[in-house]
Amino acid sequence: MSVPKKNNNLVGKRVKKARLALKPKLSQDALSGKLAGRGVGIDRAGIAKLEGGSRYVSDFEVKALAAALRVTVAWLLGSES
Questions:
Q1: Measuring CA to CA, which of 11, 24, 62, 77 is 20 to 30 A from 52?
Q2: How many other CB atoms are there within 10 angstroms of residue 20's CB atom?
Q3: How far is residue 61's CA from residue 37's CA, in Å, rounded to a whole number?
């Protein structure tokens, strides 16, 4: 019997959506670089896990992700459409 995958964050799907909506599209590696410039260390593999819902996201990471992706924290958290 398999154990169902637990989603550990609310923002993963929206991070991917925002990243791919940018013109030009932003790679996971490029997003990692933008976050590093803001003092947040999430590597490409971490971004992939985050987008897949298997990595937790802290409050300061959500704030940095929103700034790097040019969206609001509320949008990332699903409070805005």
A1: 24
A2: 11
A3: 12
pLDDT tens sequence across 31-73: 999 999 999 999 999 999 999 999 999 999 999 999 999 999 9
Q: What is the DSSP letter of 23?
A: S
Q: Name every residue whose Cβ is closer than 8 Å to that of residue 35 and which is 6 or more positions away in sequence.
A: 41, 42, 61, 64, 65, 68
Domains of the chain, each with CATH number or no CATH: 12-75 (1.10.260.40)
Residues 6+ apart with CB under 8 A from 44: 27, 28, 29, 32
d(CA 12, CA 55): 9
